[in-house]
Amino acid sequence: MILDTNALSAFLDKTPGAVEIVAEAREIAIPVIVAGEFAFGIAQSRHREAYERSLRRMLDRCTVLDVDIETSRHYAAIRLELKGAGTPIPANDAWIAALSRQNAIPVMSRDTHFDFVSGLRRLSW
């Protein structure tokens, strides 16, 4: 399963439903986009050191998904589909959706706009 930024935050904050879903996952993946969004949030936090340690530990036990040329093709297709349907989503989430479709892995997120992306399964807590 791919963790969106809000899922990663919920897991690291030990939110019960999120912890249960992550604990049941066979594999956990974090897109490089999510790592960047989380790092941006950490940089603004007064608890920066603790969050940086938590992120490092999490990245050590997860697969980090990088963007490649195949991802860019999925990204373009998703953006076109959503534009045509009148349901655009934030650009970073379109990249996360592209990685989800490319790798056939569900996304754990509270963001319901992922539901507009065909071929993507969203998990929530």
Rg (C-alpha, Å): 14 Å
How many structural units, i.e. domains? 1
**Structural classification:** mainly alpha
How would you characterize the largest beta sheet? 3 strands, parallel
Average pLDDT for all residues: 96
What's the helical proportion of residues?
55-70%
* Major β-sheet strand ordering: 1-4-5
The best one-word shape is: globular
Uncertain ranges: none
Strand content is 5-15%
CATH architecture: 3-Layer(aba) Sandwich
For the record, what CATH class applies? Alpha Beta
CATH fold annotation: Rossmann fold
Topology pattern, helix = H, strand = E: EHHEHHEHHEE
Written description of the protein model:
This protein is mainly alpha-helical. It has one domain (2-118): Rossmann fold (3-Layer(aba) Sandwich). It has 6 helices and 5 strands, in the order E-H-H-E-H-H-E-H-H-E-E. The protein has a 3-stranded parallel β-sheet with strand order 1-4-5. The two termini are 13 Å apart. The relative contact order is 0.20.
In brief, what are we looking at here?
With 125 residues, the protein is mainly α.
Topology diagram in text:
Layout (H helix, E strand, L loop, with lengths): L1 E2 L1 H8 L3 H9 L4 E3 H12 L4 H14 L1 E3 L3 H17 L5 H13 L3 E2 L13 E2 L2
Parallel strand pairs: 1-4, 2-3, 4-5
Attribute tags:
125 residues, mainly alpha, Rossmann fold, 3-stranded parallel β-sheet, two-stranded parallel sheet, 6 helices, 10% strand, globular
